[in-house]
Amino acid sequence: MSSSAALVSSNEKNDVQYIEDTTSALPPLPPTDPVLERRLLLKLDRVIIPLTIILYLLAYLDRGNAGNAKLQGLETSLHLTDTEFSVVLACFYVAYIVFNIPGNVATKILLPSTSIAMGAMLWGIASSLQAATTSYAGIIVCRLFIGIGEAFFGPSVPLYYSYWYKRDEIAFRNALFIGMGALAGTFGGLIAFGVQHIHSSISTWRILFLIEGLPTILFAIAIFFVLPSSPEKSKYLTDSERELLLNRLSRDGLVDTGKFDWSGFRRAVTDYKVYLCGIIYLGVNITLASISGFLPTIIKNMGYTAAEAQLYTVPPYAVATFLTVATSWVSDKSRLRGPFVAGYMALSAIGFGILMGVQHNQHVRYFATFLVVSGAFTCIPLMLSWCSNNCGSQSQRAVEVAMMNGIGQCFAILASFIFPSSEGPEYRKGFGLNIAFNGLAAVTALALMFLVKRENERRDRIEGPLPKEDEGRVDTVGMHDLARGFRYVM
Protein backbone atom coordinates (compact mmCIF):
# COMPACT_ATOMS: atom_id res chain seq x y z
CA MET A 1 0.00 0.00 0.00
CA SER A 2 1.31 3.44 -0.89
CA SER A 3 2.38 5.92 1.81
CA SER A 4 -0.44 8.30 0.84
CA ALA A 5 -3.01 5.56 1.27
CA ALA A 6 -1.45 4.61 4.61
CA LEU A 7 -1.64 8.23 5.74
CA VAL A 8 -5.31 8.40 4.76
CA SER A 9 -5.96 5.09 6.52
CA SER A 10 -4.58 6.48 9.77
CA ASN A 11 -6.29 9.86 9.57
CA GLU A 12 -9.62 9.21 7.84
CA LYS A 13 -11.53 6.37 9.45
CA ASN A 14 -14.84 6.61 7.59
CA ASP A 15 -15.16 3.74 5.06
CA VAL A 16 -11.44 3.93 4.23
CA GLN A 17 -10.84 0.17 4.06
CA TYR A 18 -11.98 0.17 0.44
CA ILE A 19 -8.56 1.58 -0.58
CA GLU A 20 -6.63 -1.18 1.10
CA ASP A 21 -8.57 -4.02 -0.49
CA THR A 22 -9.15 -2.78 -4.04
CA THR A 23 -6.17 -1.02 -5.53
CA SER A 24 -6.55 -1.73 -9.24
CA ALA A 25 -9.24 -1.26 -11.82
CA LEU A 26 -10.73 -4.11 -13.80
CA PRO A 27 -9.78 -4.54 -17.46
CA PRO A 28 -11.41 -2.11 -19.90
CA LEU A 29 -14.70 -3.15 -21.47
CA PRO A 30 -15.36 -3.11 -25.22
CA PRO A 31 -17.32 -0.08 -26.48
CA THR A 32 -21.07 -0.44 -26.94
CA ASP A 33 -23.29 0.70 -29.78
CA PRO A 34 -25.79 3.35 -28.53
CA VAL A 35 -28.35 2.24 -31.13
CA LEU A 36 -28.19 -1.37 -29.92
CA GLU A 37 -28.44 -0.17 -26.31
CA ARG A 38 -31.61 1.78 -27.07
CA ARG A 39 -33.13 -1.26 -28.80
CA LEU A 40 -32.25 -3.43 -25.82
CA LEU A 41 -33.80 -0.98 -23.36
CA LEU A 42 -36.97 -0.80 -25.45
CA LYS A 43 -37.17 -4.59 -25.51
CA LEU A 44 -36.79 -4.77 -21.73
CA ASP A 45 -39.29 -1.97 -21.15
CA ARG A 46 -41.93 -3.64 -23.32
CA VAL A 47 -42.19 -6.59 -20.91
CA ILE A 48 -40.69 -5.73 -17.52
CA ILE A 49 -42.36 -2.35 -16.99
CA PRO A 50 -45.96 -3.24 -17.96
CA LEU A 51 -45.95 -6.47 -15.93
CA THR A 52 -44.54 -4.90 -12.77
CA ILE A 53 -46.59 -1.71 -12.85
CA ILE A 54 -49.89 -3.53 -13.45
CA LEU A 55 -49.07 -5.81 -10.53
CA TYR A 56 -48.41 -2.77 -8.33
CA LEU A 57 -51.72 -1.28 -9.43
CA LEU A 58 -53.42 -4.46 -8.22
CA ALA A 59 -51.32 -4.50 -5.04
CA TYR A 60 -52.23 -0.97 -4.08
CA LEU A 61 -55.91 -1.61 -4.79
CA ASP A 62 -55.82 -4.66 -2.52
CA ARG A 63 -53.84 -2.84 0.16
CA GLY A 64 -55.93 0.31 0.21
CA ASN A 65 -59.47 -0.93 -0.37
CA ALA A 66 -60.19 -1.17 3.37
CA GLY A 67 -60.46 2.64 3.44
CA ASN A 68 -63.10 2.55 0.70
CA ALA A 69 -64.86 -0.44 2.28
CA LYS A 70 -65.16 1.50 5.53
CA LEU A 71 -67.49 3.99 3.85
CA GLN A 72 -69.53 1.10 2.43
CA GLY A 73 -70.39 -0.47 5.77
CA LEU A 74 -67.45 -2.72 6.63
CA GLU A 75 -67.28 -1.47 10.23
CA THR A 76 -71.04 -1.85 10.75
CA SER A 77 -71.29 -5.33 9.21
CA LEU A 78 -68.42 -6.73 11.27
CA HIS A 79 -69.31 -4.67 14.37
CA LEU A 80 -65.87 -3.04 14.51
CA THR A 81 -64.95 -0.18 16.80
CA ASP A 82 -62.65 2.62 15.65
CA THR A 83 -59.73 0.96 17.40
CA GLU A 84 -60.48 -2.43 15.86
CA PHE A 85 -60.62 -0.92 12.37
CA SER A 86 -57.24 0.71 13.05
CA VAL A 87 -55.85 -2.70 14.07
CA VAL A 88 -57.19 -4.14 10.80
CA LEU A 89 -55.22 -1.51 8.88
CA ALA A 90 -52.12 -1.97 11.04
CA CYS A 91 -51.98 -5.75 10.58
CA PHE A 92 -51.00 -5.34 6.95
CA TYR A 93 -48.02 -3.18 7.89
CA VAL A 94 -46.90 -5.46 10.74
CA ALA A 95 -46.66 -8.44 8.38
CA TYR A 96 -45.12 -6.29 5.65
CA ILE A 97 -42.36 -5.09 7.99
CA VAL A 98 -41.55 -8.53 9.40
CA PHE A 99 -41.23 -10.12 5.95
CA ASN A 100 -39.45 -7.25 4.15
CA ILE A 101 -35.92 -8.63 4.39
CA PRO A 102 -36.95 -12.30 3.88
CA GLY A 103 -38.92 -11.22 0.81
CA ASN A 104 -35.95 -9.41 -0.74
CA VAL A 105 -33.52 -12.20 0.12
CA ALA A 106 -35.92 -14.67 -1.52
CA THR A 107 -35.78 -12.56 -4.68
CA LYS A 108 -32.00 -12.85 -4.60
CA ILE A 109 -31.93 -16.60 -3.84
CA LEU A 110 -34.86 -17.69 -6.04
CA LEU A 111 -35.63 -16.45 -9.52
CA PRO A 112 -37.34 -13.05 -9.13
CA SER A 113 -40.22 -14.17 -11.35
CA THR A 114 -40.86 -17.06 -8.96
CA SER A 115 -40.72 -15.15 -5.68
CA ILE A 116 -42.78 -12.22 -7.01
CA ALA A 117 -45.43 -14.55 -8.47
CA MET A 118 -45.65 -16.48 -5.19
CA GLY A 119 -46.18 -13.24 -3.25
CA ALA A 120 -48.85 -12.03 -5.69
CA MET A 121 -50.74 -15.30 -5.52
CA LEU A 122 -50.72 -15.20 -1.71
CA TRP A 123 -52.01 -11.64 -1.35
CA GLY A 124 -54.53 -12.09 -4.19
CA ILE A 125 -56.12 -15.07 -2.45
CA ALA A 126 -56.11 -13.30 0.92
CA SER A 127 -57.61 -10.12 -0.54
CA SER A 128 -60.41 -12.04 -2.22
CA LEU A 129 -61.17 -13.98 0.95
CA GLN A 130 -61.88 -10.69 2.75
CA ALA A 131 -65.24 -10.80 0.96
CA ALA A 132 -66.13 -13.94 2.93
CA THR A 133 -65.13 -12.71 6.38
CA THR A 134 -67.78 -12.50 9.06
CA SER A 135 -65.67 -11.57 12.06
CA TYR A 136 -62.94 -9.29 13.34
CA ALA A 137 -60.48 -12.21 13.59
CA GLY A 138 -61.20 -13.30 10.03
CA ILE A 139 -60.40 -9.98 8.40
CA ILE A 140 -57.25 -9.60 10.53
CA VAL A 141 -55.94 -12.95 9.23
CA CYS A 142 -56.64 -11.84 5.65
CA ARG A 143 -54.85 -8.53 6.14
CA LEU A 144 -51.81 -10.29 7.64
CA PHE A 145 -51.48 -12.53 4.59
CA ILE A 146 -51.91 -9.57 2.23
CA GLY A 147 -48.95 -7.99 4.05
CA ILE A 148 -46.83 -11.13 3.76
CA GLY A 149 -47.56 -11.48 0.05
CA GLU A 150 -46.80 -7.84 -0.73
CA ALA A 151 -43.52 -8.05 1.22
CA PHE A 152 -42.33 -10.52 -1.42
CA PHE A 153 -43.17 -7.99 -4.13
CA GLY A 154 -43.11 -4.29 -3.17
CA PRO A 155 -39.47 -3.88 -2.04
CA SER A 156 -38.30 -6.59 -4.46
CA VAL A 157 -39.19 -4.80 -7.69
CA PRO A 158 -36.70 -1.89 -7.22
CA LEU A 159 -34.05 -4.57 -6.54
CA TYR A 160 -35.21 -6.47 -9.62
CA TYR A 161 -34.93 -3.32 -11.76
CA SER A 162 -31.27 -3.03 -10.73
CA TYR A 163 -30.69 -6.41 -12.43
CA TRP A 164 -31.58 -4.81 -15.75
CA TYR A 165 -31.06 -1.02 -15.64
CA LYS A 166 -28.24 1.38 -14.82
CA ARG A 167 -28.31 3.71 -11.82
CA ASP A 168 -29.44 6.75 -13.81
CA GLU A 169 -32.26 4.76 -15.45
CA ILE A 170 -33.96 3.42 -12.33
CA ALA A 171 -35.81 6.38 -10.80
CA PHE A 172 -37.98 6.96 -13.87
CA ARG A 173 -38.93 3.29 -14.01
CA ASN A 174 -39.51 3.20 -10.26
CA ALA A 175 -41.80 6.19 -10.80
CA LEU A 176 -43.80 4.33 -13.42
CA PHE A 177 -44.02 1.46 -10.93
CA ILE A 178 -44.94 3.53 -7.87
CA GLY A 179 -47.07 5.85 -9.98
CA MET A 180 -49.46 2.95 -10.30
CA GLY A 181 -50.09 3.33 -6.57
CA ALA A 182 -51.33 6.85 -7.16
CA LEU A 183 -53.25 5.67 -10.21
CA ALA A 184 -54.71 2.87 -8.09
CA GLY A 185 -56.09 5.57 -5.82
CA THR A 186 -57.79 7.02 -8.89
CA PHE A 187 -59.19 3.65 -9.97
CA GLY A 188 -60.00 2.69 -6.39
CA GLY A 189 -62.17 5.75 -5.95
CA LEU A 190 -63.94 5.17 -9.27
CA ILE A 191 -64.46 1.46 -8.59
CA ALA A 192 -65.76 2.15 -5.10
CA PHE A 193 -68.09 4.84 -6.48
CA GLY A 194 -69.47 2.37 -9.04
CA VAL A 195 -69.79 -0.52 -6.60
CA GLN A 196 -71.66 1.70 -4.15
CA HIS A 197 -74.47 1.94 -6.69
CA ILE A 198 -74.85 -1.84 -7.11
CA HIS A 199 -78.11 -3.14 -5.70
CA SER A 200 -77.59 -6.69 -4.46
CA SER A 201 -78.25 -8.97 -1.52
CA ILE A 202 -74.45 -9.05 -1.07
CA SER A 203 -72.92 -6.12 0.81
CA THR A 204 -71.18 -3.70 -1.53
CA TRP A 205 -67.94 -3.87 0.48
CA ARG A 206 -67.81 -7.63 -0.15
CA ILE A 207 -68.28 -7.07 -3.89
CA LEU A 208 -65.49 -4.48 -3.76
CA PHE A 209 -63.02 -6.97 -2.25
CA LEU A 210 -63.88 -9.58 -4.92
CA ILE A 211 -63.63 -7.16 -7.85
CA GLU A 212 -60.20 -5.95 -6.70
CA GLY A 213 -58.82 -9.27 -5.41
CA LEU A 214 -59.58 -11.92 -8.02
CA PRO A 215 -57.64 -10.28 -10.93
CA THR A 216 -54.45 -10.47 -8.84
CA ILE A 217 -54.67 -14.28 -8.72
CA LEU A 218 -54.87 -14.52 -12.49
CA PHE A 219 -52.08 -12.00 -13.00
CA ALA A 220 -49.78 -13.88 -10.60
CA ILE A 221 -49.88 -16.85 -12.99
CA ALA A 222 -48.90 -14.60 -15.88
CA ILE A 223 -45.99 -13.18 -13.86
CA PHE A 224 -44.63 -16.67 -13.18
CA PHE A 225 -44.50 -17.58 -16.87
CA VAL A 226 -43.81 -14.26 -18.61
CA LEU A 227 -41.67 -12.01 -16.36
CA PRO A 228 -37.95 -12.34 -17.31
CA SER A 229 -36.04 -14.04 -14.51
CA SER A 230 -32.49 -12.62 -14.54
CA PRO A 231 -30.06 -11.39 -17.23
CA GLU A 232 -27.88 -14.48 -16.90
CA LYS A 233 -30.73 -17.02 -17.21
CA SER A 234 -33.63 -15.40 -19.04
CA LYS A 235 -34.58 -16.86 -22.42
CA TYR A 236 -36.05 -13.46 -23.29
CA LEU A 237 -32.55 -12.30 -24.32
CA THR A 238 -30.40 -13.51 -27.19
CA ASP A 239 -26.73 -14.23 -26.43
CA SER A 240 -25.62 -10.96 -28.03
CA GLU A 241 -28.26 -8.99 -26.06
CA ARG A 242 -27.16 -10.70 -22.85
CA GLU A 243 -23.53 -9.75 -23.49
CA LEU A 244 -24.50 -6.16 -24.22
CA LEU A 245 -26.65 -5.93 -21.08
CA LEU A 246 -23.95 -7.32 -18.79
CA ASN A 247 -21.41 -5.03 -20.44
CA ARG A 248 -23.46 -1.86 -19.75
CA LEU A 249 -24.26 -2.97 -16.19
CA SER A 250 -20.57 -3.67 -15.55
CA ARG A 251 -19.77 -0.07 -16.40
CA ASP A 252 -22.14 0.97 -13.63
CA GLY A 253 -20.81 -1.55 -11.09
CA LEU A 254 -24.08 -3.51 -11.09
CA VAL A 255 -23.01 -6.99 -12.21
CA ASP A 256 -23.03 -9.45 -9.33
CA THR A 257 -21.95 -13.01 -8.55
CA GLY A 258 -25.53 -14.29 -8.74
CA LYS A 259 -25.43 -15.67 -5.20
CA PHE A 260 -26.38 -13.93 -1.99
CA ASP A 261 -23.22 -12.50 -0.43
CA TRP A 262 -23.48 -12.36 3.37
CA SER A 263 -20.77 -9.70 3.48
CA GLY A 264 -23.34 -7.51 1.73
CA PHE A 265 -25.69 -8.12 4.66
CA ARG A 266 -22.98 -7.11 7.13
CA ARG A 267 -22.17 -3.99 5.12
CA ALA A 268 -25.85 -3.04 4.91
CA VAL A 269 -26.55 -3.20 8.63
CA THR A 270 -23.45 -1.11 9.43
CA ASP A 271 -24.09 1.56 6.77
CA TYR A 272 -25.28 4.81 8.37
CA LYS A 273 -26.93 5.91 5.13
CA VAL A 274 -29.63 3.25 5.30
CA TYR A 275 -30.74 4.53 8.71
CA LEU A 276 -30.98 8.10 7.43
CA CYS A 277 -32.98 6.81 4.47
CA GLY A 278 -35.17 4.99 6.99
CA ILE A 279 -35.85 8.23 8.87
CA ILE A 280 -36.87 9.93 5.63
CA TYR A 281 -39.06 6.96 4.77
CA LEU A 282 -40.80 7.25 8.13
CA GLY A 283 -42.06 10.66 7.05
CA VAL A 284 -43.06 9.37 3.62
CA ASN A 285 -44.91 6.34 4.96
CA ILE A 286 -46.85 8.01 7.75
CA THR A 287 -48.37 10.17 5.02
CA LEU A 288 -48.82 7.33 2.54
CA ALA A 289 -50.63 5.20 5.14
CA SER A 290 -52.71 8.16 6.31
CA ILE A 291 -53.85 8.70 2.72
CA SER A 292 -54.44 5.01 2.05
CA GLY A 293 -56.56 4.46 5.14
CA PHE A 294 -58.31 7.77 5.67
CA LEU A 295 -58.35 10.04 2.60
CA PRO A 296 -61.98 9.14 1.72
CA THR A 297 -62.98 9.84 5.33
CA ILE A 298 -61.05 13.14 5.46
CA ILE A 299 -62.74 14.33 2.26
CA LYS A 300 -66.17 13.19 3.47
CA ASN A 301 -65.72 15.28 6.61
CA MET A 302 -65.27 18.36 4.43
CA GLY A 303 -69.01 18.19 3.79
CA TYR A 304 -69.36 15.68 0.96
CA THR A 305 -71.53 12.56 0.89
CA ALA A 306 -69.86 9.13 1.11
CA ALA A 307 -70.36 8.55 -2.63
CA GLU A 308 -68.99 12.01 -3.48
CA ALA A 309 -65.99 11.43 -1.21
CA GLN A 310 -65.09 8.26 -3.14
CA LEU A 311 -65.24 10.24 -6.38
CA TYR A 312 -63.32 13.23 -5.04
CA THR A 313 -60.32 11.05 -4.16
CA VAL A 314 -59.65 10.67 -7.90
CA PRO A 315 -58.18 14.10 -8.89
CA PRO A 316 -55.47 14.24 -6.16
CA TYR A 317 -54.24 10.78 -7.16
CA ALA A 318 -54.28 11.70 -10.85
CA VAL A 319 -52.12 14.79 -10.25
CA ALA A 320 -49.78 12.75 -8.03
CA THR A 321 -49.34 10.17 -10.80
CA PHE A 322 -48.21 12.83 -13.28
CA LEU A 323 -45.84 14.55 -10.82
CA THR A 324 -44.33 11.24 -9.70
CA VAL A 325 -43.34 10.25 -13.22
CA ALA A 326 -42.24 13.73 -14.34
CA THR A 327 -40.13 14.42 -11.25
CA SER A 328 -38.38 11.06 -11.38
CA TRP A 329 -37.52 11.60 -15.05
CA VAL A 330 -35.88 14.93 -14.15
CA SER A 331 -34.18 13.26 -11.16
CA ASP A 332 -32.62 10.62 -13.42
CA LYS A 333 -31.40 13.20 -15.91
CA SER A 334 -29.85 15.36 -13.19
CA ARG A 335 -28.62 12.37 -11.12
CA LEU A 336 -30.03 14.08 -8.02
CA ARG A 337 -32.46 12.66 -5.47
CA GLY A 338 -32.12 14.69 -2.27
CA PRO A 339 -33.37 18.12 -3.43
CA PHE A 340 -36.56 16.62 -4.81
CA VAL A 341 -37.21 14.51 -1.71
CA ALA A 342 -36.71 17.50 0.60
CA GLY A 343 -38.92 19.72 -1.56
CA TYR A 344 -41.83 17.31 -1.83
CA MET A 345 -41.74 16.44 1.86
CA ALA A 346 -41.93 20.16 2.63
CA LEU A 347 -44.88 20.42 0.20
CA SER A 348 -46.67 17.60 2.02
CA ALA A 349 -46.08 19.31 5.38
CA ILE A 350 -47.62 22.51 3.99
CA GLY A 351 -50.65 20.52 2.84
CA PHE A 352 -51.21 19.06 6.28
CA GLY A 353 -50.69 22.51 7.79
CA ILE A 354 -53.55 23.82 5.66
CA LEU A 355 -55.78 20.89 6.63
CA MET A 356 -55.11 21.55 10.31
CA GLY A 357 -55.24 25.35 10.19
CA VAL A 358 -58.13 25.96 7.79
CA GLN A 359 -61.37 24.52 9.12
CA HIS A 360 -64.23 26.20 7.27
CA ASN A 361 -63.11 26.64 3.66
CA GLN A 362 -64.02 23.42 1.85
CA HIS A 363 -62.20 24.32 -1.38
CA VAL A 364 -58.90 25.27 0.30
CA ARG A 365 -58.97 22.08 2.37
CA TYR A 366 -59.61 20.00 -0.73
CA PHE A 367 -56.69 21.74 -2.50
CA ALA A 368 -54.48 20.70 0.42
CA THR A 369 -55.15 17.02 -0.32
CA PHE A 370 -53.42 17.52 -3.69
CA LEU A 371 -50.27 18.73 -1.89
CA VAL A 372 -50.34 15.84 0.56
CA VAL A 373 -50.93 13.06 -1.97
CA SER A 374 -48.40 14.48 -4.46
CA GLY A 375 -45.76 14.94 -1.76
CA ALA A 376 -45.98 11.39 -0.45
CA PHE A 377 -46.20 9.51 -3.73
CA THR A 378 -43.48 11.46 -5.53
CA CYS A 379 -40.96 10.66 -2.79
CA ILE A 380 -41.45 6.90 -2.89
CA PRO A 381 -39.65 6.14 -6.19
CA LEU A 382 -37.04 8.78 -5.39
CA MET A 383 -36.22 7.13 -2.06
CA LEU A 384 -36.23 3.61 -3.48
CA SER A 385 -33.84 4.79 -6.19
CA TRP A 386 -31.64 6.80 -3.82
CA CYS A 387 -31.19 3.91 -1.42
CA SER A 388 -30.57 1.46 -4.28
CA ASN A 389 -28.15 3.80 -6.10
CA ASN A 390 -25.90 4.08 -3.06
CA CYS A 391 -25.45 0.33 -2.60
CA GLY A 392 -22.51 -1.21 -4.39
CA SER A 393 -23.83 -4.75 -4.89
CA GLN A 394 -27.09 -6.62 -5.34
CA SER A 395 -26.73 -8.35 -1.97
CA GLN A 396 -26.19 -5.05 -0.13
CA ARG A 397 -29.03 -3.54 -2.14
CA ALA A 398 -31.41 -6.39 -1.27
CA VAL A 399 -30.89 -5.82 2.44
CA GLU A 400 -30.74 -2.01 2.49
CA VAL A 401 -33.88 -1.44 0.42
CA ALA A 402 -35.72 -3.92 2.64
CA MET A 403 -34.34 -2.26 5.79
CA MET A 404 -35.43 1.18 4.61
CA ASN A 405 -38.87 -0.20 3.81
CA GLY A 406 -39.12 -1.93 7.17
CA ILE A 407 -38.11 1.15 9.14
CA GLY A 408 -40.45 3.37 7.15
CA GLN A 409 -43.44 1.08 7.48
CA CYS A 410 -43.27 1.33 11.28
CA PHE A 411 -44.99 4.70 10.99
CA ALA A 412 -47.54 3.21 8.63
CA ILE A 413 -48.67 1.27 11.71
CA LEU A 414 -48.78 4.51 13.70
CA ALA A 415 -50.88 6.16 10.97
CA SER A 416 -53.56 3.51 11.42
CA PHE A 417 -54.36 4.90 14.90
CA ILE A 418 -54.05 8.70 14.53
CA PHE A 419 -57.35 9.48 12.81
CA PRO A 420 -60.05 8.34 15.26
CA SER A 421 -63.58 9.39 14.33
CA SER A 422 -63.93 11.28 17.61
CA GLU A 423 -61.24 13.78 16.48
CA GLY A 424 -62.77 14.59 13.09
CA PRO A 425 -62.89 16.76 11.14
CA GLU A 426 -59.95 18.59 12.80
CA TYR A 427 -57.80 15.45 13.29
CA ARG A 428 -55.15 17.52 15.05
CA LYS A 429 -53.19 14.49 16.17
CA GLY A 430 -53.07 12.97 12.67
CA PHE A 431 -52.32 16.20 10.84
CA GLY A 432 -49.81 17.35 13.46
CA LEU A 433 -47.77 14.13 13.41
CA ASN A 434 -47.66 14.21 9.62
CA ILE A 435 -46.40 17.81 9.67
CA ALA A 436 -43.68 16.93 12.20
CA PHE A 437 -42.34 13.88 10.39
CA ASN A 438 -42.65 15.34 6.91
CA GLY A 439 -40.49 18.21 8.17
CA LEU A 440 -38.01 15.80 9.76
CA ALA A 441 -37.81 13.88 6.48
CA ALA A 442 -37.04 17.05 4.53
CA VAL A 443 -34.24 18.05 6.92
CA THR A 444 -32.78 14.53 6.95
CA ALA A 445 -32.75 14.45 3.14
CA LEU A 446 -30.69 17.63 3.08
CA ALA A 447 -28.33 16.19 5.70
CA LEU A 448 -27.86 12.96 3.72
CA MET A 449 -27.09 14.99 0.62
CA PHE A 450 -24.39 16.89 2.48
CA LEU A 451 -22.83 13.73 3.92
CA VAL A 452 -22.58 11.81 0.64
CA LYS A 453 -21.29 14.91 -1.16
CA ARG A 454 -18.54 15.22 1.44
CA GLU A 455 -17.70 11.50 1.12
CA ASN A 456 -17.50 11.75 -2.68
CA GLU A 457 -15.12 14.69 -2.34
CA ARG A 458 -12.98 12.72 0.13
CA ARG A 459 -12.71 9.81 -2.29
CA ASP A 460 -11.87 12.18 -5.13
CA ARG A 461 -8.98 13.55 -3.06
CA ILE A 462 -7.68 10.04 -2.39
CA GLU A 463 -8.18 8.45 -5.80
CA GLY A 464 -8.01 11.41 -8.15
CA PRO A 465 -10.43 11.79 -11.07
CA LEU A 466 -12.56 8.77 -11.88
CA PRO A 467 -11.67 6.96 -15.10
CA LYS A 468 -13.80 7.62 -18.16
CA GLU A 469 -16.54 5.08 -18.81
CA ASP A 470 -14.59 3.40 -21.63
CA GLU A 471 -11.39 3.06 -19.58
CA GLY A 472 -12.54 0.78 -16.78
CA ARG A 473 -15.29 -0.30 -14.45
CA VAL A 474 -15.99 -0.51 -10.74
CA ASP A 475 -15.49 -3.87 -9.05
CA THR A 476 -18.03 -3.80 -6.23
CA VAL A 477 -18.11 -7.55 -5.56
CA GLY A 478 -16.98 -8.15 -2.00
CA MET A 479 -16.43 -4.47 -1.14
CA HIS A 480 -19.90 -3.18 -2.11
CA ASP A 481 -20.14 0.64 -1.80
CA LEU A 482 -16.61 0.73 -0.34
CA ALA A 483 -15.13 -0.34 -3.68
CA ARG A 484 -12.49 1.83 -5.28
CA GLY A 485 -14.11 4.05 -7.92
CA PHE A 486 -17.61 3.92 -6.43
CA ARG A 487 -19.34 7.27 -5.93
CA TYR A 488 -22.64 8.07 -4.22
CA VAL A 489 -25.66 9.74 -5.76
CA MET A 490 -26.86 12.94 -4.10
Automatic annotation (TrEMBL):
Keyword Transmembrane helix present in the record's keywords: the answer is: yes
Where does this chain mainly localize? membrane
Query: What's the protein here called?
Result: Major facilitator superfamily (MFS) profile domain-containing protein
Q: Which GO terms describe its molecular function?
A: transmembrane transporter activity
Concerning Gene3D superfamilies, the annotation shows: MFS general substrate transporter like domains
Q: How does it sit in the membrane?
A: Multi-pass membrane protein
Q: Belongs to which family? A: Belongs to the major facilitator superfamily. Allantoate permease family.
